[in-house]
């Protein structure tokens, strides 16, 4: 890390985020594109003249250079990145179309406006100033994260000079550690070029004029007070996916342009303070973005255990699927196909060529022969074209999915080879260009398609896409050429923590749509058991992830919701040690990073110390150091006789429909479900389970049968569930409840069953 002196020595009068010197007001840029849209062909024919009248009516300057700002904000296309633009050849973007549905200043308009400003990057695609060419950074996100980190250190504002010197001179997000360190250094100095920066950069006015997020005064910069407590939401909550996506695409021009000009639907509003959290946190849902219009080539990426494969599996249920997994030894032949030795049973013949017969049966033997064996790609490819042959005239063919797990664990350039060219799809979803198959593959494909006949309407439509070639469909069926049809979907998963295994180049990246799978903290009913102690998996997951993020400033190595998949939602001590902590020790803390393997602020421990005598006690001490509380039912035996003299925290008690008798959390649940069961003797077990799992919003609140895990020899193992009987039927109810889970139960049981539970102080 550079010293302050080294940092200052590297700066000059142009070492600062630069923005085109036009009007930075987003609303005015939007109005400018409205003019382009309204003028249509007239704008293309004589834009300069036609502009003046329209501009005046919208309160804009007669100079139409504000359109460069509209391009930077993703409202107007930019066909020549980093170069000068002929505005008449550019068109309004999908983002502009989305925003156009709403009135300027409406909550929906402001949500999309916020999204576009958060997407903004330096070097902006409209920048033509040479000095800006090596600035690849999202200034609003970067500034926000800087203040988030400073806030954790007790610093809420910096001087304007410091902001120009240490924030606005950063070129990539990787410089954030250095930036924060400098701002915390009491001996920091201000660059002599600050005066130049103030006059040269419009980034400050861009942020100040368009967002209520960051506060600028004549001398200081800070986060506005109404947003001061939202750092956790932004970086540890729903928007982590967006932040990481922008860091991922910011240096890839084509991918960035795609992200910039298409709405993502963050629904976060940093302009209307009354709506910002309601719109931002509660409405965003990145888990189930299923639509009828699937992306043909899509990569689901995120931290380990975020459910990428599960989501892909769920979205392709009932579809035809071919699945493969990449690994370091995967190559073209493993992915596409090749000649391989195989055995074939053949009839034996004598020297005259007659079949040898014994006991009335031909004599056979297994011989090794070579034949072409198709692999995942060809299997999916052949199936997709066969679905076209099966489709009736005018009817859409059945979808075919090729799923590639762990795509970045293989060398994609080597694996795809010349198939890479096929990934360019036209507007109809077919490959823009075809490739010629080799003789062996051609023979195999031709044989596979020997009975296929594409209906006339489909054949004519496909052939019309390639007017310079004769009967493309016939060439496909003969195996002469390879061409991806529009019913072949290629989806992949990628763990971002494995990204360095085989880096994926930009040319490959931009041929895919990318969907980030965030950590959702959804398994609120999972429990970690350590001897006589039980803890919430969600609490553990959140706390550990906070520490992992602090160690490497990335979500890549965080624990996803399904990092482990325990039976019955119970994470045993063995699973915690050998899967979770083993991963953290080897992948996160191997070089000493992370405040994780400690039992106190001064006592570090090694992974080996958690095994053998005293290991369990150290695990419990680690939980205490992390601040993860034990669950309510741990002291269940003492709960009903608690006199209040115990030095431990007294458990809360509840009345049910105004009852004088008071119940602990698990006893209240047991009583309510048990009483309901007795009054519904005829209810089937499955309906009972479904009803109460829905009311509790816990997928395993009730189960039909249960026994403690044989690997779990803990004292309270039998306390995790309680049997509820009615007649000759029974179910098992879980006893571990966090405060949030029980509050949800209280709300739902009142609304749906009419039972009132009140906490008694």
Salient structural properties:
five-stranded parallel beta sheet, Rossmann fold, 761 residues
> What composes the largest sheet?
5 strands, parallel
Poorly predicted ranges? 275-293, 634-649, 711-716
CATH topology of the largest domain: Rossmann fold
Mean pLDDT: 81
Shape: globular
CATH architecture of the largest domain: 3-Layer(aba) Sandwich
Q: How large a portion of the residues is in β-strands, by DSSP E?
A: 5-15%
Rg of Cα set: 32 Å
The total count of strands amounts to 22
Class of secondary structure makeup? alpha/beta
Number of helices: 30
Approximately how much helix is present in the residues?
25-40%
- The figure for the number of domains is 5
Q: Identify the quaternary structure here.
A: single chain
CATH class group of the largest domain: Alpha Beta
SSE topology sketch:
Layout: H1 4-9, H2 26-39, H3 41-57, H4 66-72, H5 94-99, H6 107-119, H7 139-152, E1 157-159, H8 160-167, H9 176-184, H10 194-200, H11 203-210, E2 214-216, E3 220-223, H12 231-236, H13 240-249, H14 253-261, H15 276-283, E4 297-302, H16 308-315, E5 320-325, H17 332-335, E6 337-347, E7 357-358, E8 361-362, E9 364-374, H18 376-390, E10 400-405, H19 412-416, E11 435-436, H20 439-448, H21 456-464, H22 472-477, E12 481-482, E13 488-495, H23 506-509, E14 513-516, E15 527-530, E16 533-536, H24 537-552, E17 570-571, H25 573-588, H26 615-626, H27 636-639, E18 653-656, H28 665-678, H29 685-696, E19 702-703, E20 721-726, E21 729-734, H30 739-753, E22 757-760
Parallel strand pairs: 4-13, 4-14, 5-10, 10-13, 15-17
Antiparallel strand pairs: 1-3, 2-3, 6-9, 7-8, 11-12, 15-16, 18-22, 19-21, 20-21
Helix pairs in contact: 2-3, 2-4, 7-9
